[in-house]
Design a protein that fits this description.
Structural class: alpha/beta
Number of strands: 12
Strand content: 15-25%
Shape: globular
Helix content: 25-40%
Distance between the termini: 37 Å
Oligomer: single chain
Low-confidence stretches: none
Number of helices: 11
Strand order of the largest sheet: 1-2-3-4-7-8-9-10-11-12
Order of helices and strands: HHHEEEEEEHEHEHEHHEHEHEH
Bound molecules: S-adenosyl-L-homocysteine
């Protein structure tokens, strides 16, 4: 049994089931999620006998750091972690004025196939458990000895394709008895799995949902993102509207600017048409070129003009700072490079 993925009420039931006092659950939970113990042996206020029982019954996952690269430009740190089964995932630690942010992976590999993304090149291996998502944050907190205040589920994988584990992860992460990160400081990024966006809306969470839009017409979006063949633009926008209505939260549209593909005046005008009625914030990402594809970044003038047009159209827009450009900052690049080096 994966004890780190259990909620406090579940752990209380579990303690009752094995004949332990209920307050033991709270102690265990605190060791796991607040003190972030890496073994039962560290839990010194539990009896040796109980620690032994826990070791026999439960699995306490931990991650091993395989590589860590720190950007000389902005202090961003990129971690490559090894999971218990030998699979690799990557996470990023970023320092901002408003606090530290960790970007986590939700799956080993990805099956979504977005053309510009390195995470999907080797396909999908498996889902991450709630514990393995938490572990990325806990391992980084321990390594940096700094508090993490924001979590973005924007690393490798499609979080809404690992829906149940994602919800459990969010509930553990934001639990007042655990790390207690505010829901408002959690962002989940999706390529647009429409039925799951409806389901998520019903949860009425205060998290930010970011939609990877990247194009404004079905035709253009299909060229960049295979998921657009499954869900058309109209369906997608209806799902966004429903999400905003049900949760009262504005969505963010992520829009990676690819030179000559989606960065024209017409693209900007169409994007205004989509974002304005929803009050969506637009986050422009100069595409981070990966060597396996020939997409190029829009030039600076095109990016600036695109931003200006959106602003004129009344859109709240930011350009994502390219953090960690010198350390394989783009999704999936570090893992992929490491695996290539290992197989040489
Ligand atoms: N599967 C989720 C989350 C992971 S990707 C999603 O699609 O949203 C996180 C964001 O980075 C997405 O907006 C994705 O489209 C974008 N992205 C991936 N590779 C990129 C690259 N090389 N350059 C720019 N943006 C990229």
């Amino acid at each position: 049994m994966d004890i780190k993925s259990m909620t406090l009420p579940e752990l209380q039931e579990e303690m009752a089931a094995i004949g332990e006092k209920s307050f033991r659950a709270k102690q265990l939970y605190e060791w796991i999620h607040v003190r972030q113990a890496r073994s039962f042996d560290e839990m010194t206020n539990l009896s040796v006998a109980l620690r032994e029982r826990c070791r026999e019954r439960y699995d306490l996952t931990t991650l091993q750091v395989v590589r860590m690269q720190e950007s000389k430009l902005d202090g961003t740190r990129k971690y490559l972690f090894e999971l218990k089964d030998g699979n690799l995932v990557e996470s990023v630690f970023m320092r901002y004025k408003h606090g530290n942010s960790v970007c986590i992976s939700s799956q080993v590999g990805c099956k979504m196939g977005c053309r510009f993304c390195a995470s999907t090149l080797d396909g999908w291996e498996r889902n991450l458990t709630p514990a393995e998502m938490l572990d990325q944050i806990y391992a980084i907190t321990q390594d940096t000895k700094e508090r993490v205040s924001n979590v973005v589920v924007m690393g490798t994988g499609e979080p809404l394709d690992n829906y149940d584990n994602l919800l459990r992860f969010i509930s553990l992460l934001t639990d007042e008895n655990g790390l207690h990160i505010s829901q408002r400081n959690v962002t989940v990024s999706t390529c647009g799995i429409v039925p799951k966006m409806y389901e998520l809306a019903e949860e009425k969470l205060q998290i930010t949902l970011a939609l990877s839009l990247h194009a404004t017409t079905d035709e253009k979006r299909r060229r960049l993102m295979p998921i657009a063949n499954k869900y058309g633009m109209k369906e997608l926008m209806d799902a966004c509207r429903n999400y905003a209505d049900k949760t009262g939260r504005r969505l963010t549209f992520e829009y990676s600017l690819v030179g000559g593909v989606n960065d024209t005046k017409e693209d900007a005008e169409e994007l205004i048409g989509l974002a304005a009625p929803l009050g969506s914030h637009v986050n422009l990402i100069p595409v981070n070129p990966i060597k396996e594809r020939d997409f190029v970044q829009s030039n600076h003038a095109a990016i600036a003009a695109f931003q200006k047009r959106l602003e004129k159209g009344g859109i709240n827009v930011t350009i994502r700072r390219e953090m960690g450009r010198d350390i394989d900052g783009a999704c999936g690049q570090l893992r992929r490079r490491h695996m290539e080096e290992q197989s040489e």
